[in-house]
Amino acid sequence: MCAIVIAKDGISLIGLSSRRRPVILENPGGQDTGIAVGKTGDPACLGDPTQRIDGSLVRGLTVNDFAGDGISLFCVDHWRVTGVSANADAEYGIFPSHSGPGRVDHSFASGANDTGIYVGQSHDVRIDHDAATGNVSGFEIENSTGVRADHNVATGNTGGILSFILPFLDVKTNSDNLIDHNLVEDNNKPNTCSPGDDVCAVPVGTGILLVAADQNVVDHNSVSGNDSFGVLVANFCVAFKLTPAECAGLDIEPNPDG
Fold first, then answer.
1. CB atoms inside a 10 Å sphere around CB 205
2. Among 28, 87, 17, 93, which residue's Cα sits nearest to residue 59?
3. Ordered domains of the chain (ranges, CATH)
């Protein structure tokens, strides 16, 4: 169940917030998602433009305490989430998936047991001038292409910024992403993932982690105070401790190339 659903093109949802008077959308109980933008949950929308939304703006809202995601976008093109605060949403704070060109900027995410700001199976997305703290992962780029994460702050999470590929999803690649000009500091929070989630594998004290990501560039970041490692590039099978047989059964190429 969602508090707000946007299923048409060209809709703007704007909260006229001020510092003293934020516009707050809070879970009254029993709701999974705060704001859901999308016509469908069917991944066939990747190849069917009639099932995609073109043009969406969410601005100036605080979205708190939802059992799943604060803000989700599914199969949306030419979208923007800006000036948003997502707090204590159990899985993801801000979560665009299967989506085209878009931007998450000047926003804040905290208290997610998965990821504060998560771009999944998408392309040509910019994540900039955001802050994430108190999440398991601050920022994640999953199975996506042409994403730039820049001028963000990731501090006080389990892991700061992750870019990776997961198997058995609709999109099979992670490539040509840029992680630059970010502050990634003191990400040493205990991992509070839901048991069985992939994010449970994120070590406490992770700065920037690339797993099986191809042609990803990490440049001009300030990375300090992360107790396990600053920047790590890993093979998927090594990172997840798979056997050779398990690794051979994947539908992805597990090496980080380029």
1. 18
2. 17
3. 2-248 (2.160.20.10)
pLDDT one-digit tens code per residue, 211-240: 999 999 999 999 999 999 999 999 999 999
Which residue has tokens 């093979």? 235
211 and 256 Cβ atoms separated by less than 8 Å: yes
Q: What amino acid is encoded at 180 in this protein?
A: D
CA angle, residues 15, 137, 207, in degrees to nearest 5: 125
Edge to edge, the sheet with strand 108-110 lists 23-26, 61-64, 85-87, 108-110, 131-133, 153-155, 183-185, 222-224
For the question of whether the overall pTM of this predicted structure is more than 0.85, the answer is yes
Residue 63 host element (H or E): strand 61-64
Radius of gyration in angstroms for the set of CA atoms belonging to the chain, rounded to a whole number: 17
